[in-house]
Design a protein that fits this description.
Length: about 525
C-alpha cells in the first residue's frame, strides 16, 4: 500500500511539474500578430501598441496588471505604502538578473525612470511619470535628476515618493516608462539601444534567442522569442517560444476563425460577432469590460474642423433610439456614463458614482444656430459625411441610427460604410475617416490611461489639440483634475460615449492559459497547448 502511495505521489508530481492540464502541455510555441511594424523595443521611448505588446513579454516592471485589472507582483515581490499613500517601498525579488546574466538592481529602475524623463531621451507621453515627486521640474530641467522622488535604498529596495496621495499608484509601475534599464549596458550601445535584438538586454519571461531574433526584412518581419532562463517571476513560464508576426498571410485577417482553428495564430482580438462565431467553432473566448463604444468625429477632417459643426452632429442624436438599437446594451452591456469603462476605478470604487454622467445631453435647440453657422462657413447646407463602422449587424444598426437623426434634422443625406476589422482599424490609424462608430479601450486601469488616448502623440491619434495636451501635461492626478479633463473632452465634441462595451479575444481551441488584461497586455507565461 505504501509503495502504491509513493508511486501515485511520484506520478502526480511528475504530471504537475510537466505542466499538463487535461492534455494541455508546457514547452509549446505560440504565435500572435502585430497590427503594425515596430521601430524600437526601448520601453522608455516606444509609444505604439505593437511595440508595447512585445515589450510586455521581454520586460517586467515592478508590477503587472492581471485580467481583473488588479496590480500584482512583477519584479517586486511586495510593496507597502506610507504617508497616506504618498510613499511606496517596493521590495525586489531575490536573484533578479538581466538576460545577459548581469544582476538587476533597484538602481536599474531608478535609471530607467530618470532616463524616460530626460529631454535628451525624447520619450513621448511621459505624463504618467508626473505623479512622481519633482518629476515635472526634472523634466523641465529646473531640478537635477537626483531630485526625482525615486531612489534605491539598497540593491533590492526601491522607494518612490509621489506629489500627492494616490493609493492606486502601483498600477502605474506596470507601464513601459517605469521599466528598468541597465545604465552600463545602455551607454555601451552608443545610441543603438532597443533598435535591434543585438542592442537589448531584457528582464521579462521571454527574450531573444540570438541577435537575429528580430527580423526586419520586409515581407518576413517578425520577432522570435524564447523562454528566458534568467527570469525570476511569480510563476514558472510554461511557454517555450513566442513569435510576433508583423508580416503574415492575409487569410488571418479575412478569415480569423479559420486561422485560430488551424493554429496559424493562437489568440486574436475580435469583434463581438466574430468572437461568437469563434466560440461556436470551439475557440475559447475571453471578454474584458475595458471599453466604451461611441461616435468618434475626426477634427482633422475638413468637415469637422469647426467645433460648432461637431456639436451640431452630436447634440442632434437621439440617444434613446441609439441605445435601443444596440442589442448588447439592451441585454446587459449597459449605457456608458462617460468615456471611462467599467475597469476604471478610483480609490477602489467605481469611477462614476450612482446617477453621475459625463456625456452631452440631446439638445435640438442647437439647430437654431444652423443658419448663422452656414453663413459663417459660406455653405448652403452642411456637407454630407460617411460614418465608418465594423461590418456586423449590431454596429450597422447603430450607425443607421445616426443617419436617421441627421437626415431629419440637418437637411442633408448621410452614409455609412461597414468595414472589416482590419480595414476599420487601418482607417482609424491613418486618420482616413470623417466619423466612426469607435470602441475606445481603456489601455489601463487608471482614469489617466483613458484620458491620454486623446493626447496628440497617442497611437492612433484621435485628437490633435495643444490646449488639451497642455492640460493633460498639467494634470494633478486627483479626481477633480480627472473630471476637469473629461469635461474638456466632452466640450470639444470629439467622442460621444454610448455603450459600456467589452473587448473580445478568441484562442486557438488547442490552447489554454493565455491571459489578457485591461492595459492591453497579453501574458503568454502560463500558456499551454494540446498536441
Amino acid at each position: 500500500m505504501k509503495r502504491f502511495f509513493f508511486f501515485f505521489l511520484s506520478f502526480f508530481l511528475l504530471f504537475a511539474l510537466s505542466g499538463c492540464d487535461g492534455g494541455f502541455q508546457a514547452d509549446a510555441s505560440f504565435t500572435y500578430i502585430l497590427s503594425r511594424n515596430i521601430s524600437t523595443l526601448d520601453p522608455q521611448t516606444a509609444s505604439d501598441p505593437a511595440s508595447g505588446a512585445v515589450i510586455d513579454s521581454i520586460f517586467e516592471g515592478l508590477c503587472r496588471i492581471d485580467s481583473n485589472g488588479k496590480a500584482t507582483p512583477g519584479a517586486a515581490k511586495r510593496w507597502e505604502a506610507k504617508d497616506d499613500s504618498r510613499t511606496f517601498t517596493f521590495h525586489l525579488r531575490n536573484n533578479l538578473c538581466w538576460s545577459n546574466g548581469t544582476p538587476l538592481t533597484a538602481q536599474d529602475f531608478v535609471f530607467g525612470i530618470t532616463r524616460a524623463l530626460s529631454p535628451a531621451t525624447g520619450a513621448q507621453g511621459v505624463d504618467d511619470l508626473f505623479i512622481l515627486k519633482n518629476a515635472r521640474a526634472v523634466y523641465a530641467g529646473e531640478l537635477e535628476p537626483e531630485a526625482l522622488g525615486v531612489s534605491a535604498e539598497d540593491d533590492r529596495t526601491l522607494v518612490i515618493e509621489l506629489e500627492q496621495s494616490y493609493p492606486d499608484f502601483p498600477a502605474f509601475t506596470a507601464g513601459p516608462h517605469y521599466m528598468p534599464c541597465n545604465r552600463e549596458y545602455f551607454e555601451a550601445c552608443s545610441g543603438h539601444y532597443g533598435l535591434s535584438a543585438e542592442y537589448l538586454i531584457t528582464n521579462g519571461p521571454f527574450t531573444f534567442s540570438s541577435i537575429y531574433s528580430w527580423n526586419m526584412e520586409y515581407g518576413q518581419r517578425k520577432v522570435s522569442l524564447v523562454r528566458s532562463n534568467t527570469y525570476q517571476g511569480e510563476h514558472r513560464v510554461f511557454a517555450a517560444e513566442l513569435t510576433y508576426l508583423i508580416d503574415y498571410n492575409s487569410d488571418i485577417d479575412s478569415n480569423p476563425v479559420s486561422a485560430l482553428q488551424e493554429g496559424s495564430v493562437d489568440i486574436l482580438p475580435l469583434s463581438e460577432t466574430m468572437a461568437k462565431a469563434a466560440e461556436d467553432s470551439g475557440c475559447r473566448v475571453i471578454a474584458l469590460n475595458d471599453a466604451v463604444t461611441g461616435l468618434l468625429l475626426n477634427s482633422q477632417s475638413e468637415v469637422f474642423q469647426d467645433a460648432q459643426v461637431r456639436q451640431l452632429f452630436l447634440q442632434t442624436l437621439d440617444r434613446k433610439d441609439l441605445l435601443e438599437r444596440h442589442v448588447s446594451a439592451v441585454e446587459g452591456g449597459g449605457e456608458a456614463f462617460g468615456i471611462m469603462p467599467d475597469c476604471i476605478h478610483w480609490n477602489g470604487s467605481s469611477y462614476y458614482q450612482e446617477g453621475e454622467s459625463m456625456y452631452l445631453s440631446q439638445d435640438d435647440s442647437v439647430l437654431s444656430g444652423l443658419p448663422e453657422l452656414l453663413k459663417r462657413l459660406d455653405l448652403e447646407r452642411l456637407p454630407s459625411i460617411t460614418v465608418i463602422c465594423p461590418n456586423d449587424e449590431d454596429s450597422i444598426n447603430v450607425a443607421n441610427g445616426f443617419l436617421v437623426a441627421w437626415n431629419q434634422k440637418l437637411q442633408n443625406s448621410f452614409n455609412i460604410l461597414p468595414l472589416s476589422d482590419s480595414e476599420f482599424q487601418s482607417r482609424i490609424a491613418s486618420g482616413d475617416y470623417e466619423a466612426a462608430l469607435y470602441t475606445l479601450r481603456a489601455g489601463g486601469t487608471a482614469p489617466f490611461d483613458v484620458l491620454k488616448s486623446f493626447e496628440s502623440s497617442a497611437s492612433p491619434s484621435l485628437m490633435n489639440d495643444t490646449i488639451y495636451d497642455s492640460a493633460l501635461h498639467s494634470l494633478s492626478f486627483d479626481l477633480s483634475s480627472y473630471q476637469g479633463l473629461e469635461s474638456m473632452l466632452r466640450d470639444a465634441y470629439i467622442f460621444y460615449p454610448l455603450f459600456r462595451d467589452n473587448t473580445y479575444y478568441a484562442m486557438n481551441p488547442n490552447v489554454r492559459g493565455i491571459a489578457v488584461a485591461p492595459d492591453l497586455s497579453i501574458n503568454f507565461t502560463q500558456a499551454r497547448k494540446r498536441s
